[in-house]
């Protein structure tokens, strides 16, 4: 409970006791007693007064200085992005480290990277969050299957906890973005939503009743591997080893392959050249994106019918070309929805590379709100470090 109050002040900023009680579902008397203790311990302080609807002005409460930071690491096929994040979600620092996940001793190398970063924080650290492009059995244990990294039952959590000596939470990278939305984005206003990413892969984080839905084995949300085609010659092979997957048609490599095969861009050109062509009016380039958007729209409509979210958030490296995806996506998506679902909103948010790692840090910062217990013992250790377990 104290951890929830501290985290709320970190994510929402100065807040009155009345608002804290309402947002956390606590009685005013309980909030008064707990915040009194937090003030005495120097974690929380009283700030200015604000007008109230009746009676004396309400006093706002805020964090007293820095109550702690989280370290977030996003693991990719060629580097690790690391950020230090304050409780309010602001990124204090960021760095990037070369990394080969297929090399001998790769996890030891990852541990060395994080150990160096942890040492610079001088006791402020609440914990480390790690995002990976694959399935994770549980945030607390952190056993990873990630085909794009060449990892099978990789002992990410145990090895990193041994290396850095702090709580370590591990999850699918798109789930980490869903956790960030819970704290700092659309999850403040909606309890059930989808976070869908387009880029190298196609991913989906599912939040149901305020909790990330992870499935029986931590693999929920792998919509990039929905089978969308099962006939025809030479179906493209997906990174998962199957054929006909959504990702094999509209992931970054697939979009690039289509553009090259149609000779819209050269064999050595990249997505930057394709986007430039579309931006300058090349109708063939725009058609590549529109076709990808159409397929995404149909597939996502099926997910909407399954999960019934309040809203969908679109993120990822691919959103820089969304204006061209959207021409195919919007009519296909709406046409494929049941009448009662046709109005579901889709919010497209700006993207920066730091967001992956910031999402990973959110696994730590969301621990006080972890009503489902996804963080297990590691989450409890984070709450203890927050001074309020």
TrEMBL record:
Question: Matching PANTHER family, A to Z?
Answer: BIFUNCTIONAL UDP-N-ACETYLGLUCOSAMINE 2-EPIMERASE_N-ACETYLMANNOSAMINE KINASE, ROK (REPRESSOR, ORF, KINASE) FAMILY
One Pfam family linked to the record: ROK
Please name the PROSITE patterns in this protein's record.
ROK
Query: What is the top-level taxon of the source organism?
Result: Bacteria
> Which family is it part of?
Belongs to the ROK (NagC/XylR) family.
Does the record carry Transferase as a key word? Answer: yes
Protein name from the UniProt record: Putative NBD/HSP70 family sugar kinase
Naturally occurring in which organism (per UniProt): Kribbella solani
Keywords annotated in UniProt: Kinase, Transferase
Q: Which GO terms describe its molecular function?
A: kinase activity
Q: Which InterPro entries match?
A: ATPase_NBD (IPR043129), ROK (IPR000600), ROK_cs (IPR049874), WH-like_DNA-bd_sf (IPR036388), WH_DNA-bd_sf (IPR036390)
Tell me the Gene3D superfamilies matching this sequence: 3.30.420.40, Winged helix-like DNA-binding domain superfamily/Winged helix DNA-binding domain
């Amino acid at each position: 409970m104290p951890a929830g109050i501290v985290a709320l002040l970190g994510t929402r900023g100065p807040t009155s006791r009345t608002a804290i009680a309402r947002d956390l579902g606590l009685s005013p008397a309980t909030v008064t007693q707990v915040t009194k203790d937090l003030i005495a311990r120097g974690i929380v302080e009283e700030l200015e007064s604000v007008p109230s609807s009746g009676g004396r002005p309400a006093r706002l409460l805020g964090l007293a200085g820095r109550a702690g930071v989280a370290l977030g690491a996003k693991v990719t096929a060629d580097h690790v992005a690391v950020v230090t994040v304050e409780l309010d979600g602001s990124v204090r620092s960021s760095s990037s480290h070369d990394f080969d996940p297929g090399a001998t001793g790769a996890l030891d190398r990852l541990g060395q990277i994080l150990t160096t970063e942890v040492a610079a924080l001088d006791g402020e650290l609440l914990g480390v969050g790690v995002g990976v492009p694959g399935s994770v059995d549980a945030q607390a244990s952190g056993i990873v299957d990630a085909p794009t990294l060449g990892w099978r039952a990789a002992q990410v959590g145990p090895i990193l906890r041994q290396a850095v000596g702090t709580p370590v939470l591990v999850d699918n990278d798109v789930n980490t973005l869903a956790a960030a939305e819970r704290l700092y984005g659309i999850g403040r206003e909606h309890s059930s939503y989808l976070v869908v990413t387009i880029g190298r892969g196609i991913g989906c984080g599912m939040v149901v009743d305020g909790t990330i839905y992870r499935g029986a084995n931590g693999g929920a949300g792998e919509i990039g591997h929905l089978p969308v085609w099962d006939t025809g010659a030479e179906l493209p092979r997906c990174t998962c080893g199957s054929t006909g997957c959504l990702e094999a048609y509209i992931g970054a490599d697939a979009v690039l392959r289509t553009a090259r095969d149609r000779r819209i861009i050269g064999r050595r050109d990249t997505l930057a050249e394709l986007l430039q062509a579309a931006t300058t009016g090349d109708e063939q380039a725009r058609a590549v994106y529109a076709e990808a958007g159409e397929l995404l729209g149909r597939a996502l409509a099926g997910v909407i019918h399954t999960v019934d979210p309040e809203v969908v958030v679109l993120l990822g490296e691919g959103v820089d070309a969304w204006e061209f995806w959207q021409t195919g996506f919007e009519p296909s998506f709406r046409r494929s929805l049941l009448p009662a679902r046709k109005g579901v909103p889709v919010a497209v948010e700006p993207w920066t590379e730091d967001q992956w790692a910031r999402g990973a840090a959110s696994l730590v910062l969301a621990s006080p709100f972890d009503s489902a217990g996804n963080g297990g013992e590691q989450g409890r250790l984070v709450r203890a470090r927050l001074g309020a377990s």
